[in-house]
Specification:
Elements (H helix, E strand, L loop, with lengths): L2 H13 L5 H18 L9 H13 L4 H20 L26 H8 L7 H16 L3 H5 L6 E2 L4 E5 L5 E5 L2 H19 L18 H15 L7 H14 L4 H8 L4 H22 L4
Antiparallel strand pairs: 1-2, 2-3
Length: 293
């Protein structure tokens, strides 16, 4: 297929649909797989069986069911765009069912593992102060990693103890911070951030050693370092702390609607998956401690 078609579709998503950069990158990755598989086929020549074969190939390569479903969604959107724009008369995805599988529960750290992870940054160093503030703020608020690194100075109010976030769909929400995270962010702002900037100016809250805002990739590398130092054997990403935030709140009796608001979920069914995590935990406790468990 013509690579220019992909460029036109991504431009359409950016301009007409206003999708975020991260979402556009996800579409591009999925559709590059599709374009490579279809090779020289023109859109008018692609049939339903071709798309089914593509999905089977993804499965054979070991792609997880949720990822395959996301990939099919991107392919559907692409063909629908071509049809609406008059670039093809063919729509090969209309009767294909979305791949389904077992609902995967988000992985969360235990409270002890969170404490071990948050205890790793060295507070005697500039980067340690920054990383401690980032980890504490992430666990205190459940922000997405992209939301965390995108925070600007005016987004956070330490006196009142909340942060204002622009989440998915450009929706604004205010999230409480908590005393410990406030304290650590204040220490970072006073003792570390000015020295990291080295006389430069930036609107962004969290700064790298290169005087620019820290990226998601940089932050992920720092987390991997601290996970290793803490001796945590689980696979941990910035999103794991978001999962832990939601799970621990619900474990301790938080209202589901309140957790939904803090996470920025537009649909409460997305938040409800964390109730299953808590139920699984209760089941394990029951099996471990009940005489007939």
């Amino acid at each position: 297929m013509d690579p220019d078609l992909l460029k036109r579709f991504l431009n359409y998503l950016a301009v007409e649909k206003g999708l975020s950069r991260n979402t556009l990158e996800s579409y591009e990755r999925d559709l590059n797989k599709y374009f490579n598989y279809m090779n020289a086929k023109a859109p008018d020549d692609i049939r339903q069986q071709d798309v089914l074969n593509f999905l089977s190939n993804l499965s054979a390569e070991g792609m997880a069911v949720p990822s395959a479903a996301r990939c099919l969604s991107a392919v559907r959107g692409f063909h629908k765009y071509l049809l609406i724009d008059g670039l093809t008369q063919n729509e090969p995805t209309g009767n294909i069912e979305t791949p389904h599988g077992w609902k995967r529960l988000p992985k969360a750290l235990s409270a002890d593992e969170v404490e071990a992870l948050l205890g790793q940054p060295e507070l005697a160093t500039l980067l340690g102060l920054r990383d401690k503030a980032m980890l504490e703020l992430l666990y205190a608020t459940g922000l997405r990693a992209s939301e965390l690194v995108g925070l600007r100075m005016q987004d956070i109010n330490l006196e009142r103890g909340f942060v204002v976030v622009i989440g998915k769909g450009s929706k604004e929400r205010a999230v409480p911070i908590g005393d410990m995270a406030c304290k650590r962010v204040q220490e970072y702002v006073e003792r570390s951030r000015p020295l990291l900037l080295k006389g430069s100016e930036s609107d962004f809250l969290f700064i790298s050693s290169q005087r620019r805002r820290i990226t998601r990739q940089m932050f992920w590398e720092r987390i991997k370092l601290y996970v290793k130092k803490a001796g945590i054997m689980k696979s941990v990403s910035p999103h794991t702390l978001r999962h832990s935030f939601a799970t621990h709140l619900l474990d301790n009796g938080a209202d589901l609607r309140a957790v939904q608001a803090m996470l920025g979920h537009s649909d409460i069914s997305t938040t409800q998956i964390y109730t299953y995590v808590s139920r699984e935990r209760l089941k394990r406790i029951h099996e471990k401690h009940h005489p007939r468990g």
